[in-house]
Each structure stands twice: as structure tokens, then as C-alpha cells.
């Protein structure tokens, strides 16, 4: 992990002198993500299928993001992103999971807060950003037997994960329309996390509208607990740029 962070940091220092924002820029947006979940959770070697056994379904997904760009070439720009996912369901275990059997009620809560430091490598009708993201990941799966006084199992994963950051956007001149994508990813020692977004964007004065598709995967082990999940689906967002 340390070698990966050093390599990414070196790449950022090389990229830093090439481009910077011409003026100060601030933006913030809120989005709705209609995501489907698949994958499994592990507890002390036991596995449970989140989709087929627990029948988890999306209750709410919140995503907030903001960035600050400046014309100082040596200092990185800053991007913040917060995502919270809540899913619940009622299902039935096909095998024993952490001493639980039969019908169960389940709830998955997943939150992540990203701090990204990045440089603008290109800044014209083709935009390219490179950077590093520190992701504070906090996930908990609660499974309870659907009987009075039933057993309860909690699977928890927590950690701050360093990730590479890449963003590209292609502007169609004089239209306010652009196409773009963003990616955060890392893979190390059996764990992997990725987060991809592809979108179309329209800007009118200070208003920024986006629609696209987001795919996120987490394969992360924390002591005896493990989450190996994927979420994907369309999203729409609205924001303001200054």
C-alpha cells in the first residue's frame, strides 16, 4: 500500500505544473442514485447472499459533493463527496449464518466520505484531472431472526482507504453540453474498491444538471467481517457553480 501511495503522489507532483484553474471556482451538487445491490457478506467464515437470501432493497441513497479550484499551480484542488446508502429486507437463510437460521430481517447501512486532492492536467474543451482520494468507509449489516427475541448478527467494516482519482470531461463548444466520467479505485492484498461514473451534463448560467450511470464495488475485509458487494444504476443531479 505504501508503494502505491508514493507512486500516486509522485505522479501528482509531475502533473502539477501543467495546468491550473484560471480563476477561483466553487461548485456543489446533490444527486439521486437508483442503485441495485448484489454480493455477499462474511462473518467468521460464514457467507450470506445479500440479494437472494436477505432480499435487500434500496430505501434511500443520498449523495452530496462539492469542489474548490484555484489558480495556484503548486497547490492541489479539493473535492469532497459524501454517499449514504440504506437498504433493508426480509428473507430466509438457506444455510446457517453466524448462528442464525430461517427467516430474518436485515438492514445494510453504508456511508463513505471522500476527500480528494487533484490537479488539472488539461483545462480547455478537453478537461483531465488526476489526484488522490482518501475514502472513510463505514458499513454495517444487521441480520436478526424474525422471531420474538431472535438472535442478532452484525457485520461491520471500517477503514480509511487511499484511492487513485481520475476525471475527464469533453465540452461541446457553445452548447453548454458535455460528456464525462470519473473514477476512484484501488486494489491491494485481496481488497479492492472502485467507484465509476459516466454522465452527460448541461450547464445554463450557474445551474449544472447531470444524468448518467454509477457503478460501485467494495471487496473489503475487516478482521473476521467482510463485505463483497456491487451497486449500480442511473443517477440524476443538480448543482450550482460559481
From TrEMBL:
Signal peptide stretch: 1-21
Origin superkingdom: Bacteria
Keyword hit for Signal: yes
Keyword annotations: Signal
InterPro entries noted in UniProt: OMP_w_GlyGly (IPR026387)
Protein name: TIGR04219 family outer membrane beta-barrel protein
Native species: Marinobacter confluentis
